[in-house]
Amino acid sequence: MTGLRSLALLLPLLLGWASGHPAPGRRSFHKLLLISFDGFRWDYDQDVDTPNMDRLVKEGVKAKYLSPPFVTMTSPSHFTTISGRWVEEHGVIHNMLYNSDKGWKYDFKATQNKTEWWDNGVLPLWITAQRQGRKTASFHYPGGGAKYDGEPVQRSLVESYSHPDSNETEWRENIDIVMDWFKKEDFDFVTLYYGEPDNVGHRFGPETENRRVMIQQIDRTIGYLREAIERHGLTEHLNVIITSDHGMTTIKMKPEVTEILLTNYVKYRDLVKFDLVDYGGLGMIEAKPGQEENLYQALKNAHPSLHVYKKEEFPKHFHYANHKRALPILMYTDPGYNINGRLILHINKGDHGFDNSVMDMKTIFRAFGPDFKKDYLAEPFDSIHIYPLMCKLLGVTPEPHNGSLAVTEGMLRDSSGQNPGSATASKTMHNVVIGLGTVTAVLFVLFIAAVTYTAIQRKKT
Ligand SMILES: *[C@@H]1O[C@H](CO)[C@@H](O)[C@H](O)[C@H]1NC(C)=O
Ligand SMILES: *[C@@H]1O[C@H](CO)[C@@H](O)[C@H](O)[C@H]1NC(C)=O
Ligand SMILES: *[C@@H]1O[C@H](CO)[C@@H](O)[C@H](O)[C@H]1NC(C)=O
Ligand SMILES: [Zn+2]
């Protein structure tokens, strides 16, 4: 009867395995990965073959396009996504950290470490989620390297100066690292950032072969992500949102147009104390003491494609200028016109920062995972509504914000007013049934083996 005895020994082990796997009822939410590909214009997948992104449309949610906040720049827009607040409310109003009194500026990468630029009293989702017991991490996502209300993001990797934007091998390694964070270390919420296709869009322009080649690299990376999720057994446990911060448009140059060069209209030496220009379609200037009106008058009608305002008069629908960091004179341009200060360098063939109602500034929203509907095409929406959606997915109570869950919850499988845990509960039940089924099957095989073994033993004696 050796066979039956070994069966008896195995039984507790098998039952232990069944109850420890898949940890039924431990959580009432799924994990969430937010990925941002910087500067991915809404229609970039329409003139390139993107089999993986096309597959995602069938297997998840796609919005026709996504509207970023104004100003359509990297740090302001990313911080709106992670906080659900308008730019003038979260205060990250530019990529540059600057001080108009002292005259210094720090660029995008240098700001990543600088808490004083990011922490203006509005909590990003990492911190809110942590305070409600979630484990969160940021991989190169703008703002992830700062402390908020004294608290750092539990794990944060900050992009270094020398970090290459487009190394596909490294992109895949980063996905594997993030999968390990979810799988081995049980992180609940991770934000992952890639600097492309922004870089290539600036350098070569959006309507180029270089940009199309980069979109194919991104598409392969999304394919790799799908594989990695499956390989790590996360398919039923991880929701993924793929989005971006703004689009890209081709910069207009002479002789096609008259370019905007501020020094043509104002005597810099007499009127300008500090300026933040040469960054696409938004500019801010502070006048020398007593010169504000002169500066404003000199710029107001300077160029037909340049729209100049005193701070208080800047269009309210942009939700942009009502912050102490905004300089006294603000201006924005028609799409494609760069605001140049003292000289025109023509470094960029493409740029962003323009009016967020312009189609070339629109960006992407894709999502898939256990909580998202399949083959669901959503109407265009503002990126500010991603925040309440993420809170809902993570089971986190949001901070006060400017988004609305009503805009995005139609994408969710369980959006018909049922209690939020029910899909998960039935899934857990399903897993338990599968687990018990497996145990029964194994027991049956062992039983047959034992009976056969016993029969053979009997024959021998
Ligand atoms: C961020 O801070 C760390 C530690 O102070 C430093 O080593 C790193 O170079 C900084 N990164 C950037 C992009 O400034
Ligand atoms: C790309 O990244 C991989 C993995 O991190 C590294 O081994 C390789 O040297 C990088 N290639 C370039 C051209 O930097
Ligand atoms: C944005 O949300 C904050 C916090 O709830 C609120 O104080 C503010 O008035 C809102 N802004 C707008 C424009 O609705
Ligand atoms: Zn960007």
UniProtKB/TrEMBL annotation:
Residues 1-20 form the signal peptide. The chain crosses the membrane at residues 432-456. Keywords: Membrane, Signal, Transmembrane, Transmembrane helix. It holds the Pfam family Phosphodiest. It comes from the Eukaryota. SUPFAM superfamilies: Alkaline phosphatase-like (SSF53649). This is Ectonucleotide pyrophosphatase/phosphodiesterase family member 7. It comes from Galemys pyrenaicus (Iberian desman).
